[in-house]
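Example (one chain per record):
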Amino acid sequence: MAHLVAPALLSFTQRYCDAYQQQHQSLPCSDAFVGLPSLCIQKQEGENVYWRAYQRDSVASLQAVEQGIELTLHPDIAPFYGSQYCADMPARWRDVALTLLQVWNEDDYVRLQENMLGHLVMQRRLKQKPTVFIATTDDDMVVISICNLTGNVIRETLGRSQREVLCADVADFLDQLEPVV
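Predicted structure:
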């Protein structure tokens, strides 16, 4: 399914940008990225950075995470985080409000890998099945993740074994996401 993740992510990103354009008559913008370089930046006006997703030439590797935790990551994870630079995007999956996490620049990619490694180490200590987060929710303790064993997209409560399967795979999950602008 990994070969379907990047196109599904690109499609959702385009739907998000189109919805933003329709509602605001501009590219998506954020005040969170002022002063942070990125290939996404189209222009900056005052405290607003206007952005457009930047597709990478090839999918970035997560080999450092795999070596650090001695675990092979599910093949859907690398294309989810490594196929584009982009701002985080609010969305809805059925009744679940979420913010789809993305990577803004290479420094952000390094931070992501550190956070991913910390998350996986904590799960190992708690003897939980490994997951990699892909979205946040309004509840700081609840995240949307990819189950590393099955590739299912799940809603999980951090530090607990409570998990709910939302979708069979990442590509289908992305195809079903609705942008929230």
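Caption: The longest strand covers residues 131-136.
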